[in-house]
Amino acid sequence: MEQMDIVKHTDKINELLARYGVKFGIYKNNVFKEQLFPFDSIPRIIGHEEFSYLEKGLKQRVMALNLFLKDIYSKKQIVKDGIVPEDFIFASSGYMAECEGVVPPKDIYSHISGIDLVKGKDDNWYILEDNLRVPSGASYPMIARDLCRRSSPDTFQNYRLEDNRNYASLLRRAMDYVNPGGHTVILTPGRYNAAYFEHSYLAEKTGAHLATGSELMVENDTLYYISSDGTRERVGAVYRRISDEYLDPMNFNPESLIGIPHIYEVFRKGNVALMNAPGNGVADDKGIYYFVPKMIKYYLDEEPILSNAPTYLPFYEEDIQYVLAHFDDLVLKDVAEAGGYGVVFGSSMTKQQKQDFISLLQREPRRFIAQEVIDFQDLDIVDNGEIVPRKADLRAFVVMAEEPLVWKSGLTRFSRNTDSFIVNSSQGGGFKDTWVLYQ
Amino acid sequence: MAVLHFEYKMEIKYEEYAGKCYFTIKCIPKEDARQHLLGLKLSVLPETAYSWGEDSFGNRQVYGCETEPHNQFVFQAAGDVEILQTDYEEEAREETTGIFCVPHGKCVPGPGLSEYYRSQDFSKCKSHYETCMALMHRLHQDFSYVPGATQVGTTADEAWEMGRGVCQDYTHIYITLLRMAGIPARYVCGLIIGEGASHAWAEALCGSHWVAFDPTNDCLVLDHYIKLGHGRDAADCAINRGLMWNGGAQSQTVSVLVEKRE
Q1: Residue-level pLDDT at A35
Q2: What is the pLDDT of residues A249-270, one digit of tens each?
Q3: Which of A91, A88, A109 is CA-nearest to residue A400?
Q4: Does A133 touch chain B (CB under 8 A)?
Q5: Given B56, B101, B232, which is nearest A102 (Cβ)?
Q6: pTM for the whole thing?
Q7: Do A50 and A160 share a domain, yes or no?
Q8: Which residues of chain B have pLDDT under 70?
Q9: Which entry of A34, A110, A150, A229 is 20 to 30 Å from B55 by CA?
Q10: Do A250 and B51 touch (CB under 8 A)?
Q11: How many Å is the Cα radius of gyration of chain A?
């Protein structure tokens, strides 16, 4: 491919990104460190037809996941019908008893879903995981696109690509759809959160108030925003960027200083929409991932359009036999971990490690899943002036309003090490813009 | 069956003035097939607006926030409860009982408790009910009632290692063991005649009935018990949960009166 003009501007764009505060904050050994999230300006380009296929598959998946969440926190028909074993629900760390019987506005649980996919060398797309709690990352391709357009307007004349700067309006649509009355706020833990840039950027772009817990209060089963002059205004929707356990010290972790006491009671009474709904962790658990294709059949009576990576559950006797027999070909994941942690490759273990791991696996089979290692396609990146191939994935965003809306872009993350398959940003990877062509 | 009159009073005194205090109180007797609430009077001091609600286990709750500076907080509830039956079939709130089968919170067995469970012989028990009875008798022999040995945060496992505790610990250990035996079991918080404080016991699903066992007193729960709430462990149905700003050291006193109405 002929080198795009945009590539010449990489350094300048990275400089601008740094100036805008596009950084990733990471806590390591209790020290807060911010690191840049390196941008590579060669975009991932997805053709119109290919994306239409992804779009259909993503909508289907998110529809089924929402129905699953509604079912799990009410009738649990899928458990009674024997599709998902009870163990995988109640023993999941993402299951929250507090959500039983609580119906979120318009029955929507996952308003913003971040679905991670990879494209295999066989040209098939595979779903790696669903993120239904607080998926982050949409702001990075948004701002990168904006800066790229300014640095190299010509590039954008020559390609017929979908504008991705509409993410804010999709988000706004989802917020307004579930809002029972009042303002919309984005609730941030504050300046020292890894994704603070994103919180402030999305607030600016959607016109929502950016608020910390101390600027919100509950009275009479109503949530209020207290503005700087002390006036109180009702809040109807909270796009909360803090996790379930910190949301309400009166219902969840009592030590939380970033939450709002009794906000969960307001939610219970239907007076505020929490986006995403609490309790979603039960559906994006790595163990539940195995059951998503079954869910699609069960709830929608459709064949899954997008495939999972072939996955085994050591919980099932025949699966654990397979895992033991093919240990070196598999990647093992701890279902409770996220962010690229708790992932080990069978082939990279020493004999002793392998023995220890297998006995752990036999002791706690529910805790792990095993997957075939997908040999996914490389994307070109510029590294020290040279074009080199690197492993990359795609986080697609599905926003739920009256219907699921797939953002025609996405966050493409790549690994900066030659051999690594782990592209997670908390592990030092970089990102690309994702272009979707409209023809 | 009996009609019981109850009075519950919780008083918190602060060393200094507290600026703001959030509270969630679950001390309203449950309305279900077991018991019926005949009358209820609530009072909060300082006078504060509060809301009514229900948690996900169907426990009634009263919650609010006192925003004026105050150095004491008093909550009182009084009323009459008619006990309709002791074992009962509950209207299915939880669509499956799986939630009361898995280890959770303070009821996760460690090596000691697991060993104790394995040492049990259930071969003579022909039903869940008999297993519950046998385990209750054993536990009553093997664990000692010693107030002050444990705290609110003590887990079933920690209490077991110490070998002594109070009703909360008996109940945590008991339901942990029942769940290991595959019997759905839940923690119950309530009031009984003659206790002077709140009490805890367990309910286990025996066939289609929830049957209530009091492992602390080694007996079945009869009509002199008032049930306030239930959950997976004590934290799910804690009577009082609070969060305050300032106030310094605090002391809490609880008094409970339960008596039979003639």
Answers
A1: 79
A2: 999 998 888 999 999 999 999 9
A3: A109
A4: no
A5: B56
A6: 0.93
A7: yes
A8: 91-95
A9: A110
A10: no
A11: 22
Burial class (CB in 10 A: 0-12, 13-18, 19+), A30: exposed
Give chain B's domains with CATH numbers: 3-84+240-260 (2.60.40.2250), 98-236 (3.10.620.30)
DSSP per residue, A312-372: E-TTSHHHHHHHHHTGGGEEEEETT--TTTTEEEGGG--HHHHHHHHHHHHH-GGGEEEEE
Give the pLDDT confidence score for residue A337 in this predicted structure: 73
| pLDDT bracket for residue A434 (50, 70, 90) | very high
A91 at B interface, C-beta within 8 A: yes
ipTM of the complex: 0.93
Distances (CA, A) of A312 to A92, A255, A346, A398, B89: 17, 37, 14, 27, 40
Which of A320, A354, A372 lies at the terminal end of a domain, its last residue? A372
| Whether the Cβ atoms of residue A251 and residue A267 lie closer than 8 Å to each other | no
Whether A81 and A198 map to the same domain: the answer is yes
- The domain boundary residue, chosen from A372, A398, A420: A372
Coil, strand or helix at A217: strand
Strand ranges (E), A255-312: 273-275, 307-308, 311-312
Q: Which long-range contacts (CB under 8 A, 24 or more apart) does A343-349 make?
A: A343/A422, A345/A373, A345/A421, A346/A370
Quickly state the pLDDT bin for A340 (edges 50, 70, 90): low
Size of interface A-B (CB pairs under 8 A): 63
Across the range A376-385, mean pLDDT stands at 90
Of A89, A99, A221, the CB nearest to B98: A89
Domain that holds residue A332: 310-372
Are the beta carbons of A368 and A315 closer than 8 angstroms? no
**Residue A80 in 3-state DSSP?**
helix
Residue A265 touches chain B, beta carbons under 8 Å? yes
Instruction: Evaluate if residue A32 carries a pLDDT over 80.
Output: no
Q: How many domains does chain A have?
A: 2
Same-domain status, A204 and A157: yes
For chain B, the residues whose C-beta falls within 8 A of a C-beta of chain A are 22, 24, 49, 51, 53, 55-57, 63, 65, 93-96, 98-99, 101-103, 231-232, 236, 241, 243
B243 vs A76, A219, A254: nearest CB: A254
Q: Is A100 on the interface with B (CB under 8 A)?
A: yes
pLDDT digits (tens, 9 = 90+) for A269-310: 999 999 999 999 999 988 899 999 999 999 999 999 999 999
Record: contact B22-A261, CB cut-off 8 A: yes
- What is the bridge-based pairing of β-strands A183-187 and A125-131? unpaired
Task: With cut-offs at 50, 70 and 90, classify the pLDDT of residue A385.
Answer: confident
